[in-house]
Amino acid sequence: MPDQNEFENLLTNRNLKRTKTRILVLEVLKDSSPKTVDEIFSTLYQNHMKLSLSTVYRTCETLTEKGILSKVNLTDDGVARYEYMKSEHTHHAICLGCNKIIPIDDCPYGQFDQIMKSKYGFDVKSHHIEIYGYCQDCIRKREEKE
Amino acid sequence: MPDQNEFENLLTNRNLKRTKTRILVLEVLKDSSPKTVDEIFSTLYQNHMKLSLSTVYRTCETLTEKGILSKVNLTDDGVARYEYMKSEHTHHAICLGCNKIIPIDDCPYGQFDQIMKSKYGFDVKSHHIEIYGYCQDCIRKREEKE
DNA sequence: TTAGATGCAAATGTTTTGCAGGGCT
DNA sequence: AGCCCTGCAAAACATTTGCATCTAA
Fold this sequence. Notes:
Two copies of one chain form a homodimer.
Chain A: H1 2-13, H2 20-29, E1 35-36, H3 37-46, H4 53-65, E2 69-72, E3 81-84, E4 91-95, E5 101-104, H5 112-120, E6 123-134, H6 136-145
Parallel strand pairs in A: 4-6
Antiparallel strand pairs in A: 1-3, 2-3, 4-5
Helix pairs in contact in A: 2-3, 3-4
The structure holds a DNA duplex.
């Protein structure tokens, strides 16, 4: 299992112990859309993994501090989501019809850092962009209704 | 007080009663950066206005449903913020040093809707952009330290 | 061996809700 | 008058924390 080694390196490089929970959480989030702590916990729990919800909270927090995960506020439901931090820069499109989360490869932000610096004296470190609208499936369904 | 009338029209146009709490909440948020429910409540409470926290929650929710306010998740602190919905399109820069929220007039998004449509078949209705970094004040303070 | 991880339960903080009373139209 | 709005207190959730126990290094 190649991911196992990748995860173990990620952890040891940052002076984190290679524990069962941390590797399980990384396995769930790798190649997944952003998940809530409860979703991560439930996924593992249903797979008969024994672990505690508060440990998942602590794990996500630690992995975020170390830059392995990223905490995102995509929705207004008051629940935080975590995603595997990819080296590539990705944004999301969220469907208002079915809440599907679609990763977007392109970035609309462009060279805006320069404007932020010259106009506002602001030194940009990162940005989040979320795009809301309707996905292909929902557009099709709406058309079928008519 | 011209705002009073503006607010009353906003409410009556949407079949909402013109109540004291609603007008007070709108007064606080108009021309303000996004505030948490507790900040809105405290501001009014300190001005000797008698009202209940749960009413402020309900008011913000109602005004958001009617498109008068907008609920935003700018920070990772797990607390929702509301802002007065401006007709102009505004984004925010959030300072990682002092948490100051700076409104940004320009929009880096440009004509990205077209790419979303052609590449993802996604029909964009809105977008949120948050920019994180360091404001002028924090940059200056950091330089002084050195 | 020992600092760091975990499990459990209790605490915290935010947001929601039920219900009775009050205010707007 | 009638329905919507509000206050209060309690409930519901998400998240954090204290402490004893365990475990990777």
